[in-house]
Design brief:
pyruvate-formate lyase- activating enzyme, alpha/beta, 40% helix, 2 domains, Rossmann fold, 18 helices, seven-stranded parallel sheet, six-stranded parallel sheet
C-alpha cells in the first residue's frame, strides 16, 4: 500500500467551477487497488493554494504525489492567459514540503505536451492519456521496487502512454474526495461521462489525441445508476454530460434518454451535441427525459469554413437542429470559431448571418484556433512553413487568418454590443462574474448562458 496525494491543480472558474472528473477517476482506481489515497483540490484556494498544499503534504507525508494538470491556458485570443506560473508554484511547494515523494504528472494538458511539461516542471514520471490503469501500475512498481522497474508497453523515457486494452473506464469517480456540494452550489451541475473517444476528425480538435478515435460507451443502465446515486447522496438534481459529442452514436444517446424516462429520475441535464446526425426525434426524447439545454459544437455556419474545420454536417443541418430545438422547447447555444484557416470576411459574415437566423439562446464565439501538436490544423501550418513543430508548446500559439486578423476583435466587440446573448471570451464580452455569482447564490442551476436573452 502506498500513501498517495492526488492534487487537482485547476483554478479556472469561468464561467463555472468544474469538478475534477479525470483526477477523481484516477483517485477511485488507486483506492480500489488498495492504496491510501488523499486528495487536494486547488480550485477554491486562490492565492492560498501553495500554502494549503504545503500543509497537506506535511500532514500526510505521501510516498507519491500525483499532479493533475487540466488546461495549459484559457484558449482565449487575443488575451490568452497561461497557467504555467501556477503549476510551477505548486511543484515548488511539493518539492520543498515533500522531498521524499515521487512526483507524477498527468491530466489532459500534460497529455498534449508531456515532454514540455516534464522539462519545465521536472516531475519524476508522467502518465499521458487515460491514467486509471497506468497510474495504478506505476504505484505498484514504486511500492515493490522504488522505481519503474518494468515499463509497460508504450513507455518513452519516464512517461507512460496508454496502449490498446490498458485504459480503464469501469470505476466510478471518487466524488467523496471533493467538495461536490460546493461545486454544485457555485457551478450549477455535476459532471458525468457516458463514453470516451471521438470518431470525428475536426481539424483543430484534441479529443482523439486525449481519448482515442474509437468510442467506448458505458452501459446506459450503469450511467443512470450513477446519476441516482449522486442525486441521493449529494442532493444534486442537474447533470452535465461532458462527453465530447453526446449524440455519437445516436443509439447510445437514445438509450440513456429512454432509461432516464423509464426510471422517472426527475433530474435536469445538458450536454454537448453535434448537428451531425441529430434528429428531431432525438431532441424530443431528450426533452422528455429532462434535458433543458444543448451546447452545439457548431464552429461555423459557412460551407467553406465547415469544410476547413472538417465538420461532418452542412449549414442546413445547423438551421434544422436550431428550429427543432425551438419547436420542442430546448434552449441551445452555438459555439463558434471565427478566424480559423481559410476564413475571409465573407465567411465571417455568412456564419454570423446564419447564426442570427437560427435564433439561438446564446452564442459563444472564440477567435482563432489554438494550435496543438498532432492536430490537422497544426500539421498544415507546419507544412506551409508558418511555424515549426518546436514552436508549438506551452506558450499558446493561435492561427488567426491574416485576412480577418486585424479587424476581427473590433467586429465581434460591436456584434456582442448589439446582441447581448453573444459571449466573446477573448474580449471578456458577455462575461459578468458578479452577475454569475449572484445567480448561483439564488440557486440557479445549469449553464449560465441559458439566462441570456435571445435577440
Amino acid at each position: 500500500m502506498v500513501d498517495v496525494l492526488l492534487v487537482s491543480a485547476n483554478q479556472e472558474r469561468l464561467p463555472d467551477p468544474v469538478p475534477p472528473l479525470g483526477a477523481m477517476y484516477v483517485a477511485a482506481a488507486a483506492r480500489e487497488a488498495g492504496h491510501r489515497v488523499h486528495f487536494y483540490d486547488a480550485c477554491f484556494a486562490g492565492a492560498r493554494a501553495a500554502q494549503e498544499l504545503t500543509a497537506r503534504l506535511e500532514e500526510i507525508k505521501p510516498r507519491v504525489v500525483g499532479l493533475s494538470i487540466r488546461n495549459v491556458d484559457n484558449v482565449a485570443w487575443p488575451h490568452a492567459t497561461s497557467y504555467l506560473p501556477h503549476y510551477r508554484a505548486l511543484v515548488a511547494a511539493i518539492r520543498a514540503a515533500a522531498p521524499q515523494a515521487t512526483l507524477v504528472m498527468g491530466g489532459s494538458a500534460f497529455t498534449l505536451f508531456p515532454e514540455a511539461f516534464m522539462a519545465d516542471l521536472g516531475a519524476d514520471y508522467g502518465v499521458a492519456g487515460e491514467a486509471e490503469a497506468l497510474f495504478v501500475e506505476l504505484l505498484s512498481q514504486l511500492e515493490r521496487h522504488g522505481r519503474l522497474e518494468r515499463p509497460p508497453p508504450g513507455t518513452r523515457g519516464n512517461v507512460l502512454y496508454p496502449s490498446p486494452g490498458l485504459a480503464r473506464f469501469d470505476v466510478r469517480p471518487a466524488r467523496d474526495m471533493v467538495q461536490l456540494e460546493r461545486y454544485y452550489r457555485e457551478g450549477g451541475s455535476a459532471n458525468l461521462q457516458t463514453k470516451r473517444g471521438c470518431v470525428y476528425r475536426c481539424s483543430y480538435c484534441t479529443y482523439p489525441l486525449l481519448e482515442g478515435s474509437k468510442v467506448r460507451a458505458r452501459e446506459p443502465g450503469q450511467v443512470v445508476d450513477e446519476i441516482e446515486e449522486v442525486k441521493q447522496r449529494h442532493g444534486i438534481g442537474f447533470f452535465f454530460f461532458v462527453d465530447n459529442v453526446f449524440n455519437s452514436p445516436t443509439s447510445h444517446a437514445v438509450a440513456i434518454a429512454e432509461e432516464l424516462i423509464r426510471r422517472k429520475t426527475g433530474i435536469a441535464w445538458t450536454a454537448y451535441l453535434s448537428p451531425a446526425g441529430c434528429t428531431r426525434e432525438l431532441l424530443e426524447l431528450m426533452a422528455r427525459s429532462g434535458c433543458q439545454s444543448i451546447d452545439f459544437g457548431t464552429d461555423a455556419v459557412s460551407a467553406a469554413m465547415l469544410a476547413s474545420y472538417r465538420k461532418a454536417f452542412a449549414v442546413q443541418d445547423v438551421l434544422d437542429v436550431s428550429r427543432w430545438c425551438r419547436e420542442v422547447g430546448l434552449m441551445f447555444n452555438h459555439s463558434l470559431i471565427l478566424g480559423g484557416p481559410g476564413e475571409t470576411w465573407d465567411t465571417v459574415k455568412e456564419t454570423v448571418a446564419n447564426t442570427l437566423e437560427s435564433k439561438p439562446t446564446s452564442v459563444i464565439a472564440v477567435m482563432g484556433v489554438r494550435l496543438y501538436r498532432g492536430v490537422a490544423a497544426a500539421e498544415k501550418a507546419i507544412a506551409e512553413g508558418h511555424l515549426t513543430a518546436e514552436q508549438i508548446g506551452l506558450d499558446p500559439i493561435f492561427h488567426v487568418e491574416e485576412a480577418v486578423r486585424e479587424g476581427l476583435p473590433a467586429y465581434l466587440e460591436a456584434l456582442a454590443g448589439q446582441h447581448r446573448n453573444w459571449v466573446v471570451p477573448g474580449l471578456k464580452k458577455g462575461i459578468n462574474q458578479r452577475l454569475f455569482d449572484r445567480m448561483r447564490a439564488r440557486g440557479v442551476k445549469g449553464p449560465l448562458w441559458q439566462l441570456l436573452e435571445p435577440t
